[in-house]
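quick one
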Amino acid sequence: MTQSLTLSRPDDWHLHLRDGAMLRAVLPETARHFARAIIMPNLVPPVVTGADAAAYRDRIMAALPEGMDFTPLMTLYLTEDTDPDDLAAAHASGLITAVKLYPAGATTNSASGVRDFDKVRPVLERMAEIGCPLCVHGEVTDSEIDIFDREAVFIDRVLDPIRRATPGLRVTMEHITTRDGVEYVQSAEQGLGATITTHHLVINRNHILVGGIKPHYYCLPVAKREEHRLALRAAATGGDRRFFVGTDSAPHTDPNKESACGCAGCFTATNTLSILAHVFEEEGALDRLEGFASLHGPAHYGLPANDGTLTLTKGDAVAYPQKIDTGEGPVTVFDPGYPLHWSVQA
Ligand code: NCD
Ligand code: ZN
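structure w/ zinc ion:
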């Protein structure tokens, strides 16, 4: 008997599409399966104003192949100079869905991020007033803090103080990687959700470092110890509405990954749904995949779930490309390390 699973069409609540030739190459990989995605604004230069977001949205729609149905949910990149009126107008018109906070220097293209969190307090207050959610890259950047501790320290030093000072602000903790992140989200009474990536459900830090360095498993926040991966799997598959998928699919070309100073990011758009079905089946939670992939995210953002459906069927090993060709060079597709058997029906 064929096993199959039909879900309301999923969304990706954290996605990097880049621009130009890379955008044209990676967009179909997401739009094939996902109806909507929160589009990260960390271009060079970043998407900081409403006008930047409108122009970027137009470039994304122009790159979308005929016949594909996909809605980009735009974000602004929060800087110490963000104009609250421009932000409020972009939110009121429906142009943007959220605003992204990157601590300066935390990750790829984050040099224009926030250094002094007091400087963005008025913007955060305005966002709380107008109901515009804040997406947070939750890592401190202080050089004396160990890279594996940066998420936990961020929660105590930055995130919790921001949430206490701005109680009405709706916050998404992006790509949580630790038990500390899971527990912090579970401890919140309201207004806090978290995305979990596909790859953090699959790899721990051994995958990056044991038996030779594996640049395609390096991303930020970096994968942690096994106990943290297990906490993420329990959160993702446990049915708690505060957790939902944000792939953080982040394409970099192979030369930029396989380098003496390799870029952070795993490219998972192509096989994310097959991997998620595999993980949820392993956890005996296939009936909860729809919540994680299709229902909890819209509820957190106050949007309806999608009308369409997507069907996964279990069968022979799924064939997917090892690399995607882009006009900028090849991009390696995330390898979970085992064959996948759940394929998305065309
Ligand atoms: C992202 C990128 O490449 O833009 N990289 C990553 O490792 N996740 C940035 C980010 O989300 O931190
Ligand atoms: Zn990201």
